[in-house]
Amino acid sequence: MAEVVLEAVVGLLFENLESVIQREFDLVWGFKADIKKLSATLSPLREVLADAEVKQIKSKAIQKWLARLKHAAYDAQDVLDDWAIAETDRIRHRPAQSDATGTNYRAHLVWSSFMSFINLKRLVFRYKLAKQIKEIRERFDGIAKEMSDFSLIRKSVDVEGSVVPPQSISSGRVTSSTSVEPQTYGRETDKENIVKMLLENINNEHVISVCPIVGIGGLGKTTLAQLVYNDDRMEKHFDVRIWIYVSDDFNVKRLLEEIFEVTTKRPSSNNNLDAIKNGVKENLKEKKFLLVLDDVWCEKQDEWNRLKNSLTSGAKGSSIIVTTRLKKVASITKTVSEPYQLDGLSPGDCWSLFRSYAFDVGKELEKPNLVRIGREIVRKCGGLPLAAKALGSLVRFKEEENQWEQVRDSEIWELDEEEGSDQCPKILSALRLSYNNLSPRARQSFAYCSLFPKDYEMGKEELVHLWMANDLLQSERMEPEVVGENVFGELLSHSFFQDIEKKEEGKIERVKIHDLMHDLASAVMKSEYSLFEVGMSRNIINSNIQDDEIRPRHVSIILSPSSSETCVVDVSSIHRFLSSHQRHMRTFSLISNEDRGMLYSHDVISIIFGLKNLRALRVERWKAVISLPLLFDDKLKHLRYLNLRRCGLSWLHGESFRGIKNLQFLDLSQNDRLKTLPDSMGEYMEHLKHLNLNRCGLSSISWCLLIEKVDH
To answer: Which of 16, 35, 101, 643 allows an S-S link to 667, with CB 3.0 to 4.6 Å?
Structure first.
């Protein structure tokens, strides 16, 4: 899939640039001419981005032009951020007015001598800044000259983007992790067929019957499995029901641990595989169980046999449902005569599903022309429920016939066939169309979700905080928190989120994204967002990012150990990977999927050293970090978000936070050995908006009295 919609990046960065320039314009001296020229260049470039994003799909030259434009915009933002921080420090350290007599006079002389040295440093900084801005202005001038080569059409730009307010979202589409939507279409017969198969257990010679559901992505295999799993007859027939999302991590030990946790309602305290097997054997003994393994990709017969042989203590009539896209997986797991091949929805059912998302109940009768166009759009869905949902959500907020016709007639429908995609072209085209019609903010915010692993429960609050830290929610008219609510609502209303988890009062707390949506998020901005899930047998240094045009700015490294041993990360491999990209890095996450990851304080320092433009840092579930020494100094002056959740912290040095005065979000939760926070820490927290100390061992925080408006 070609990287698309760079306007989502460039448009937002231009908005931030203009905002900074306008806000600080009067304070800039010595290079006003370059600032004026840079500002004048931004407007025409922004106006062609909408046309460029369409034409670059079929033009490598425009793709490369947009990439150069994007890199220049990022570099400009970094320079202006450096200058804004320097100006803030200058104002903060400005001395109070005093008379020049006696003791005050002597103090004045000392201060004047000190300030002479400081002013010299500022002059050097301003000279360097002026040079950088001139270079950036010249880069933009060159990019603007190339614009005429592409015959791009100018279009007016809505600065804020089309954002859907949260209150317009239909609450009827909310789902949970193991429950289906309130209304499904065309799967009743499929459900009855599988339920009948499980109840009759047609393969009596097998203690465990295995029924694979196989089909391409987006057909609704998971939804069908959920329908079966939640059927009242299943609850009565089976003593135990277990649901596990597998994906490409078919780790037998992990799967057995999850089975153990479900059957005992407590986590496994033993890392020994044999001990876990014995625990599962005892918990399932003479019990009839239903196990759903969702989204299986592992084609290794021996791995499957290892798992299945660990479950044989269950009673006769126990069953396993496997959902998969791969026929080979279905073949090696089945005990039934044939895997259950799931087909697309009928035209009538596909229309019913599309209609439920595109129209309010009964409103389609008032819009016969839109119904006609809608049926033509549905024919392009190929019977795929995910495509019907995405396109129905897309046109729901479009009132004009020509807007629906643009969806129906988009060139994107032809693109996947030209590229020879091995995925189903219909679903890729439908998801691309839905993505392309989001506002620029929502597009980039959605791409940010690719930093989380598949099936990850993303906290709404955490997601919005990360967006804010990376300047994705800047607005001249609204607070970023409000913009974040609106962007989240836009993604939700367009069906980009699923498996919604709510608090008791009805507020959304966590969401997931469909694995195909995750693939889309990874593809649309693959040069900027990189996720690595590293097992014991894989090394980050073997990463295939070698292209000079690929500059990852947001990187997540997730350690998923495949053995029971404690995992000590290979810090040198991370160093090698980051060395050529550290100047561009804005988000860096290093997360262990289990509590056996080991990362020491000096390793943290060595890993992040040089990431001078970092906005967000997440180091989670790494035991033995133990302390946070004089870590940051002035190395991370742009840092706004710091997450050290569940890292075994026992103490903090107050001066650690001296160099990160722009910090807005701090998460120290689940460090139960952290008993106190240093008083001096509060001196550097003037911009802090959110502090999470949940499940820490703190008795009091005296310095919080110095912080106003902190959200605990």
So the answer is: 643
